[in-house]
């Protein structure tokens, strides 16, 4: 990890202050002063600032039940940021792993571990995500087959990857996709002439949302490790 990031993870400094301390020559790595913020360090290195060897805080991994009408963003906009739900120190260090639209509710993951989030969102991992979808019109009989074969979305070069549709009733379905394209679920249903009236993410990989609206919890070590395992599909 970068030295400035390590300083942030082991002190109360923010990124700008950490960079300044490094550039002023206040930080040593294995006995040598390092003045480059982007210098790569390992947690086993002896990193000293103000006469103390620094120890990085452990990374955090969080599940949140995102309420409707909240933004997947660190800042408020037309709606409040979902970060208002998370009463935790240094929440600003967390980032969202796979955003949801403001009018979508459900499972959101947050972390300060960029390598972990990359394991979930990297396209070749094809991490499955299941959405409960409420539809304007009754689901047509050929939609499951079309989604399974892949469909053409407007302004996209490639067909969507095979997706699985389970019909609950004529206006309620579960859709599992392995990509994360912009407004993907809404655009898939638009492409078959229907419209999404309600959208809720229930699972990411093996992880199932098990919280009330607006609640959050830390993931267990096993839940964290599951995403680092080989391929999810
Ligand atoms: N697909 C959408 O259209 N919106 C979301 O929020 C998530 C997936």
Give the terminus-to-terminus CA distance.
29 Å
CATH topology description of the largest domain: Pseudouridine synthase
Rg, please?
21 Å
Task: Supply the CATH superfamily name of the largest domain.
Answer: Pseudouridine synthase
Poorly predicted parts = none
The largest sheet, given as strand count, sense and whether it forms a barrel, is: 9 strands, mixed
Give the overall silhouette. elongated
- State the CATH class of the largest domain: Alpha Beta
Instruction: Calculate the mean pLDDT score and round it.
Output: 95
Determine the strand fraction and express it as a percent band.
25-35%
- The CATH architecture of the largest domain would be 2-Layer Sandwich
State the helix count. Answer: 6
Q: Could you outline the blueprint of secondary structure elements for this entry?
A:
Layout (H helix, E strand, L loop, with lengths): L2 H8 L4 H9 L3 E3 L2 E2 L13 E3 L2 E2 L7 E6 L28 E3 L6 E8 L2 H8 L7 E7 L7 H7 L14 E6 L2 E6 L6 H8 L4 E9 L2 E2 L7 E3 L2 H6 L7
Parallel strand pairs: 7-11
Antiparallel strand pairs: 1-2, 1-3, 3-4, 5-7, 5-13, 6-7, 8-10, 8-11, 9-10, 11-12
Helix pairs in contact: 1-2
The chain binds uracil.
Uracil (URA) binds next to helix 5.
């Amino acid at each position: 990890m970068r030295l400035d990031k390590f300083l942030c993870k082991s002190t109360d400094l923010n990124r700008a202050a950490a960079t300044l301390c490094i550039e002023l020559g206040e930080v040593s790595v294995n006995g040598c002063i390092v003045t480059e913020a982007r210098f790569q360090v390992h947690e086993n290195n002896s990193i000293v600032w103000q006469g103390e060897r620094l120890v990085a805080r452990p990374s955090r991994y969080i599940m949140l039940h995102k309420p409707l009408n909240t933004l997947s963003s660190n800042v408020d906009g037309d709606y409040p940021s979902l970060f208002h739900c998370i009463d935790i120190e240094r929440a600003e260090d967390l980032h969202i792993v796979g955003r949801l639209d403001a009018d979508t509710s459900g499972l959101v993951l947050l972390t300060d571990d960029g390598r972990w989030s990359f394991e979930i969102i990297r396209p070749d991992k094809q991490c499955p995500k299941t959405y409960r979808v409420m539809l304007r019109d009754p689901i047509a009989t050929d939609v499951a087959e079309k989604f399974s074969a892949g469909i053409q979305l407007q302004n996209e070069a490639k067909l969507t990857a095979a997706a699985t549709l389970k019909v609950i009733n004529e206006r309620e379905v579960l859709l599992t996709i392995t990509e994360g394209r912009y407004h993907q679920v809404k655009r898939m249903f638009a492409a078959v002439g229907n419209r999404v009236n309600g959208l809720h993410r229930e699972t990411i990989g093996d992880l199932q949302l098990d919280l009330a609206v607006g609640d959050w919890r830390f993931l267990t070590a096993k839940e964290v490790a599951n995403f680092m395992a080989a391929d999810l599909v």
